[in-house]
Amino acid sequence: MRISVICGGPSLERGISLNSARSVLDHLQDEQIEIVPFYFDHKKQVYEISRAQLYSNTPSDFDFKLGQTGQPLTKDQFIKRLKQSDLVFPVIHGTFGEDGGIQSLLEQHDIPFIGSPAEACKRAFDKFTANEFIRAQGFFTLPSTVLKIYHRDHGKIVREFFATHRIKR
């Protein structure tokens, strides 16, 4: 069996993604399983990497070594390599991984993969929107609100939130 593991990605969670990929490799050690790792850098350039490269230290150290140890692939080469696998295991954290980006690519090319479909990932990625969707389906969710980084009305939003959702004794 041949399994492709896809890690890295454009978000700052690349380090977590690398740890997840290492964990997958550690737990799928078997003579009958060939694991082929692929890594997306912060610009979404994909590389086929060796198992040894996957165990490099930090994401910045890892990215620094990519030019020497990774094989850059075009999108078509990447798709062709994935189609040679029996199954793909995406472990990209953050954007492009948890938001349905990589899943959409895999679905478009009929490549079997582990995990939720792209649409489910898109719905769940933004936690506030996911919470609102779940509530609209009739399920209980805890009250929540959103504070946007570039807005200056955080204090007002927080005061209104707690005034509206005051605990009744």
Structure description:
The protein is of the alpha/beta class and 169 residues long. It is 44% helix and 14% strand. The protein contains 8 helices and 5 strands. It has helices spanning 14-27, 51-54, 59-69, 75-83, 101-108, 118-125, 127-136, 154-164, and strands spanning 2-8, 34-40, 46-48, 71-73, 87-90. A 5-stranded mixed beta sheet has the order 4-3-2-1-5. A hairpin with a 5-residue loop joins strand 2 (34-40) and strand 3. Helix 5 runs antiparallel to helix 6 (118-125). The longest helix has 14 residues, at 14-27. The protein is elongated and about 60 Å long.
Defining traits:
169 residues, alpha/beta, five-stranded mixed beta sheet, 8 helices
Task: Write a concise synopsis of the structure shown.
This protein is α/β, with parallel strands linked by helices and 169 residues long. The protein has helices at 14-27, 51-54, 59-69, 75-83, 101-108, 118-125, 127-136, 154-164; strands spanning 2-8, 34-40, 46-48, 71-73, 87-90.
Poorly predicted ranges: none
State the distance separating the first and last CA atoms.
59 Å
Number of strands: 5
- Reading the helices and strands in chain order gives EHEEHHEHEHHHH
CA radius of gyration: 20 Å
Main sheet: strands, sense, barrel:
5 strands, mixed
Structural class: alpha/beta
**Spatial strand order of the main sheet:** 4-3-2-1-5
